[in-house]
């Protein structure tokens, strides 16, 4: 047991690093070539607020509990600590659209960071958050401010045509499968989610007498692929054991 925990922690850190690199690369390529609707200011504001919230709340908690802050110890621990905030903030900037208003992006990023310290339970000798931070921040923002919307799904391939319309989604599938199978160890969750989502689509088609393709074609979109391979399987808020992953994936699809 003592050997398994450090190994799982190392795999989680490796997954976080690769997710951070992947979402950063997607943001840069998306803004420069793909036709992302978000502005550069969205990204900068989200990152600034996300970093600040994590550093502030960690500092306050470390002070209140009499321990050292997790970001202390040098450059590498500092960067490792900010990886979740980096991923979450870029997800918020990528998925929310608030026209020229920047404060909803800042609001969602602050909520996402704060949710990790509010919605959590005691597991063993530590507290663990149980909500996906970016999903929590985005969902609450959309509920509170109906005029804020998600970014249009077409933005991911807006400037592509022909073979590139197939190559980009295929890249997301291959790279996402590698990340989840080798590092995040959540490929069982991904498969369960996909099977359950497709099954309920076919069930709806049978029950309402609608074309099956109309119910499941959303699964071919890049937005669906990004959620499937890069968001739903957040290592910090999803089960590690296969059975738990299956139940989680099916419940999300339902």
In short:
With 254 residues, this protein is mostly helical. The chain is built from 10 helices and 4 strands; from the N terminus they run H-H-H-E-H-E-E-H-E-H-H-H-H-H.
Please, could you describe this protein's structure?
The structure is a single chain. The protein is mainly alpha-helical and 254 residues long. It has a domain at 38-151. The chain contains ten helices and four strands. The strands form two sheets. The protein has a two-stranded antiparallel ribbon. Strands 2-3 form a two-stranded antiparallel sheet. Strand 2 (120-123) and strand 3 form a beta hairpin. The protein is globular, with a radius of gyration of 19 Å. The mean pLDDT is 90. The chain crosses the membrane at residues 15-34, 40-57, 69-96, 102-119, 131-148, 160-180, 187-207, 213-232. Keywords: Membrane, Transmembrane, Transmembrane helix.
Features:
254 residues, mainly alpha, two-stranded antiparallel sheet, globular
């Amino acid at each position: 047991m003592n050997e398994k925990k450090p190994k799982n922690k190392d795999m989680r850190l490796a997954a976080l690093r690769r997710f951070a690199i992947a979402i950063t690369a997607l943001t840069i390529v998306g803004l420069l070539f793909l036709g992302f609707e978000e502005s550069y200011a969205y990204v900068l504001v989200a990152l600034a607020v996300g970093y600040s919230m994590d550093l502030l709340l960690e500092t306050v908690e470390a002070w209140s509990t009499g321990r050292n802050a997790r970001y202390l110890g040098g450059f590498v621990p500092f960067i490792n600590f900010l990886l979740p905030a980096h991923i979450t903030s870029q997800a918020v900037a990528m998925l929310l659209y608030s026209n020229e208003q920047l404060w909803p992006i800042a609001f969602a990023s602050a909520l996402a960071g704060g949710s990790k310290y509010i919605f959590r339970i005691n597991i063993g000798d530590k507290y663990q958050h149980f909500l996906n931070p970016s999903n929590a921040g985005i969902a609450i923002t959309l509920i509170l401010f109906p005029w804020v919307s998600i970014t249009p799904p077409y933005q991911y391939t807006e400037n592509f045509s022909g073979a590139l319309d197939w190559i980009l989604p295929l890249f997301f599938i291959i790279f996402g499968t590698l990340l989840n199978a080798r590092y995040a160890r959540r490929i069982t969750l991904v498969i369960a989610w996909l099977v359950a989502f497709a099954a309920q689509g076919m069930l709806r088609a049978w029950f309402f007498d609608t074309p099956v393709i109309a119910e499941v074609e959303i699964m071919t979109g890049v937005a669906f692929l990004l959620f499937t391979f890069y968001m739903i399987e957040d290592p910090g808020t999803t089960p590690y054991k296969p059975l738990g992953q299956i139940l989680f994936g099916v419940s999300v699809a339902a």
